[in-house]
Amino acid sequence: MPYSIEVEAEPTYIPAQSDPVQNRYVFAYTITIRNTGDVAAQLMTRHWIITNANGEVQEVRGDGVVGDQPHLKPGEGYQYTSGSIMETPVGSMRGSYQMVADDGTEFDAEIPTFTLAVPGALN
To answer: May I ask the CATH class of domain 5-117?
Structure first.
């Protein structure tokens, strides 16, 4: 497959920055992006869909990730950590990265849905 980007997410709850009394739940997430295709590609923009436990949806679009637009050759990876603040102790994130391959082909790399949850909130 010439164009293939694999995305993994590892979320973490940040209790020190959260305030459940004020409905403020802070999460960090570490994203690992790997070029599993045959053609080098650059991450140009991102599109996130963030949903909280009340069903409220927030969409975020922007250039690159954490101020960078990584260029990944086949087999290369890139990792970054970012964060999200939610009004509920449980929510989810999903989205896509808009990529441009070195041959000019534009394609999307799917970010699979991952859950943001305060430890014990889902038990």
So the answer is: mainly beta
